[in-house]
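Render this sequence as a predicted structure.
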Amino acid sequence: MNLRMLQASQRFNIEAKNLGTTIKCIKTYDSVTFTVDKESKSYPVYIPESHFNTDDNYDYGLFEKLKSMVLKTDLNLEVFLASFNYPGVFVFGDSRSPKTA
């Protein structure tokens, strides 16, 4: 086993304990719905530092806009839909505990 594979294996063992339902394997043009609870300030967040993400350049600005809408507006949001134009693995968490959701 080379060093890179060993490091990836070690990261997997560490992160696998906290996966829950946060990893999404996306096919081209897939959409994913997320629950939003404005009262408890619970909304999906993208976790860019996860080693499971397959695109280091993924533009998660839409999730940043959602955060702003939840925290700074009076809109009553309950569901958030994100669409993806290309396949990949993307890791998400909950705003209240993004690394352990």
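Summary. Residues 3-94 form one domain. Residues 3-16 form the longest helix (14 residues).
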